[in-house]
Amino acid sequence: MSRLDIVDLRVAFDAPGGPVEVLRGIDLSVTAGRTLGVVGESGCGKSVTMLAAMRLLGRRAHVTGRVRLDGLDMLALPETEMERIRGGRIAMIFQDPMSSLNPVHRIGTQLRETLALHRDLSGGAAAAEAVRLLDRVGIPAARSRMSDYPHQLSGGMNQRAMIAMALAGEPEILIADEPTTALDVTIQAQILDLLRDLQAERRMAMVLITHDLGVIAETADDVAVMYCGRVVEHAPVERLFASPRHPYTRGLLASLPRMDARETSLRPIPGSVPPAGALPMGCAFAPRCGAAEPGCHAIMPLLAPRADRHEVACHVGARAAA
Amino acid sequence: MTAALLEARNIARDFLVRRPGDLLGRKRVLRAVDGVDIVVARGRTLGIVGESGCGKSTLGRLLLGMLPPTSGTLRFEGQPLHAREDAAWRRQRRRLQMIFQDPLGALDRRLTLGEQIREPLDIHETADVQARERRLDEMLDAVGLSRTMAARYPHQVSGGQRQRAVIARALILDPALVVCDEPVSALDVSIQAQVVNLLRELQARIGVAYVFISHDLKVVHHVSHEIAVMYLGRVVEQGARDRLFARPEHPYTRALMSAVPRPDPQQRSRRILLSGDPPSPLDIPPGCRFHTRCPAASDLCRRSEPALAPLADGHRVACHHPGRDTPP
Question: Do the chains contact at A184 and B52, CB–CB below 8 Å?
Answer without folding.
Answer: yes
